[in-house]
Design a protein that fits this description.
Helix content is about 30%, strand content about 15%. It is of the alpha/beta class.
Length: about 700
Amino acid sequence: ERPLQPVIVGQETMLERAWNRLMDDETGIMGFYGMGGVGKTTLLKQINNKFCEANYDFEIVIWVVVSSDLRVEKIRADIAEELGLRRETRHKVTDIYAHMKNKKFVLLLDDIWKKVDLTEIGVPFPTRENGCKVVFTTRSREVCGRMGVDDPMEVQCLTNNEAWNLFEKKVGQLTLKSHPSIPEQARKVAEKCRGLPLALSVIGKTMSSKRTIQEWDHAVQVLNSYAADFSGMDDQILPILKYSYDSLKGDQIKSCFLYCSLFPEDYLIEKEKLIDYWICEGFISENEDKERTVNQGYEIIGTLVRSCLLLEEGSSISKVKMHDVVREMALWISSDLGENRDRYIVRAGVGLCEVPKIKNWSAVERTSLMNNKIAEISGSPKCPKLTTLFLQGNMSLVRIAGEFFMHMPKLVVLDLSQNVSLDRLPEEISKLVALKCLDLSGTTISELPVCLAKLKKLIHLYLEGVWTLERIDGISKLLSLRTLTLLGCSQLKFEKSVKELLLLKHLEVLTIQIRTKLVLEELFFLHMGRTCIQKVVIKNMAEESYGILNFPSILRNLKGQCFLNLSSVVIERCMRLKDLTWLLFAPNLIHLSLMHLIQLEEVVSIEKVGEIQAEGIIPFGKLETLVMLDLPGVKSIYRTPLPFPCLREMDIEGCWSLAKLPFDSKSVAEVERFVIKYDMCCWIDELEWEDEATRLRFL
């Protein structure tokens, strides 16, 4: 039996679920995964002791700590010792196998970082017949798969109440009651741990002797400014988490991970934009084709998620976040373990009203001052190494002095988005000769500064939600431009800009709002639109345009799928629109919203599918969300059942004539996660289903 503390507060239910699964005859190998310090080892010790407390017909329980430097000889020696064999002897695989093959055993492997080959060690494989069990802990979801466990149990951080209960226990009532204001500050300190048991325990014990309110105030201040300075952080918490960072293969993925620490605590980071930033920084090579480059970015994100260094939450599969303590670890590493704090200047979301005073701007490589209250930016810092500057989300920002950008020769990423009071840019922005990514989304500029034409290396220009933007004259001079986002630019007259847009020969991604037949004909349905447009809103189209939207004649002559880049379509208030069969040509559509289309009868017309000889095309193969709002005449989405392998949510309101959904009993892969939202119970009650099996699957 292994000595251990009581079960971590909040893990009682997890332990019970784990034990019940382990005792199932069908379970031979079981894995726990989760971030460092979350309580995996404690859980495994509890399981070990449950086996030791009662017989359960197991003859031997073996505990082995594996760690990152997996050594087969050491594992064999540990097992041999547990079996009663002499540790000094170099035991062969056959020796261990001979002693274990006729025994009903439990093997507990703590802290594995790569696949442990049971055959190589000499351990018989657990089966239903022999009744043996192998349980392991790891920080990597990927390792679980390599161990043959497709459905491992994730050990998650504690809920807010569970975290407070644990922290309260570690601090002790004597300290908490020593001053009436301490409990309030204690809750702030506990919140900084974000439910991570390791941090709650270490910091709780550290604070257990602090009985003046000034000490607690100081603790909150330190944790909010540079948490690595807090007692116990740099020797008991961050080094343990750093093992996950050290296990990442190569400088490329490590740089990508550290970059994520520029965002504020608990911030949801858009995957697509994050990958664009990584490409601009040179972490991912630009020389390969776009699809391969982007896929490499998603592979890196996937690796970081599987390593529990980034988190995906709920339905936000297009975004990731960093656990706050992991973020502190990343900032600590970025500062060379606290030795060079000027490398990364990160003061995101901390309420700053001005740019902080930095002693050594020449050492700064990346700066994030996003989500603050900065009203004016002045000065002329000399930043020869600065590559990324985040200034977005400063709602009060009205002015940036021209000289501020004079000495940033290596700046490649500049984010000024969501600065809603910023209505002009200084001419000196043209001095940013290395700039590749400029985000002006959500600002209130009315036109593009003429000086932008000098940014010859600019690849990504984000202008979404700039409702004041009236023209984009000179856009054709940005010859390197690959991404241009213009959704939500409601004042922009595209008719005057179409010719300039067509001159952007390297453009790969375009988002746009369309309100006229001219833009539909000359841009959307021609080559650039079919190859570049990623997101489109078609809204308030005049009556004479309904024909081209119903079924554009240009598509009749096209063979196969041509809107390969189109992922999001919103069509709203377009009169006399009967169907949208052309959506068949958008195989990568993820989001589709159809709203206030009074005369729409069907989304895809089977008759028109025959006209264009597109019978082999199965629509909506990648669709995740479908919104249908106020479509009183629509009778059909598609007349036969479709697979919908990716569909997660369907929102249907005001579609009184829609009597049947295109589902059968095999439609929608993860039906337990699928949600149908509707406005009237009578509609869902009267819905016709393909068969009873389909009805039972979805209701």
